[in-house]
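Q: Predict the bound structure with fe (ii) ion.
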Amino acid sequence: MANQLISFHDLQPSRQADLLQPCVFAAINLALTLKQLHWNLRGSKFQTVHEFLDKVIEHARATADELAERTVTLGVAARGQATAVAEIDMPPVPDSFVTDTEALQYASNLLDATIGVLRDAQAPLGEIDAVSEDLVISAIQTFEKQLWMLRSHLM
Ligand SMILES: [Fe+2]
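A: Predicted complex:
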């Protein structure tokens, strides 16, 4: 029987890119939208929430970069223009000031939706490339921990 080892060149780059690209868009959207909440929240928990949102934004930016660069590593161009990101369906936030509690709720909803996009990609990626799957799992792990921390402020 032929050797069953999977070579880098046996991967399906276009299929992987199709799965990774929505994750890139979701991560960019998360970083942009959380920044708006970071600026516009008001209330007694301002400093804590303001600073914590920046930690999530930092991870969202790193995730977008990591997954986009994985796409390019596979030989497919990555997309990241604002016009493309704007086409995805994610929970909106108001273009106004929000209370600290509202900011936490909006941020939780956004983070939850982002995790959903990554989880949708994770299992199919696992069937064709464990390396891409591992990057997505790693991103999910940190986002889910951050979601727990965000929600803990709402108790
Ligand atoms: Fe800031």
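A: The chain has one domain: 13-80+95-152.
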